[in-house]
Amino acid sequence: MKHVAQLALTGLLLVSSTPAGIPSPQEDAVAAAAALPYPENYRSTMTLYAVVDRPDGMVRKLYVSLPALEAVKNQRAYPTSGDALYVIENYKAQSANQKYLLDAQKHMIPRENPETIHVMQRRGNVSGAMDNWNVQSFQVASHTPDLTATLSECWSCHVSAEKRDFVFSRPVLQKFLLTRQVQRWDCPKTNRQLCDQHLDPQ
């Protein structure tokens, strides 16, 4: 079954053009976005490893592909075949009487479907690329790029995570690997500001 999932994921990710030919968002944002398709069926082929609540009513679910998970587990570099993938689902929390609804564990209850997803994919070497990552944001309802997202702003932030291969949640993923429990926490910061859990341990 595991082998079938791996094959399915490989087929999912390689529907785009050869990763070595994908420019970085800084080089050509339009071409980079076009080369990274909507990751169909990612929930069944990827692993949910964290859920984050923020005070502005956003709930984010973080997924990782098997090749990326194995790279972190074995302390190896992410493969540049296009198979190393991260997906973040962005939900609005359910509310009533101007208050966010909470579950038994005091976590926000997200709406049924996310509004957007952010995708980050490691691909082949391209001269001048930002460590060979490509990024895109999608509207979930239409599976089309979210034109309100500014990819250059994504990278201006991720540059500070260079020693973690530009992945902010890598320490969180390492905790997931140790516990095999989905990491869940409340982040006191709004929007996409860094949470303490995204920082390297001292």
UniProtKB/TrEMBL annotation:
Keywords: Signal
Keyword set includes Signal: yes
Pfam families xref list: Cytochrome_P460
Coiled coil, from the record: none
Signal peptide bounds: 1-20
Location of the Cytochrome P460 domain: 39-169
InterPro entries named in the record: Cytochrome_P460, Cytochrome_P460_sp
Name of this protein: Cytochrome P460 domain-containing protein
UniProt organism field: Deinococcus roseus
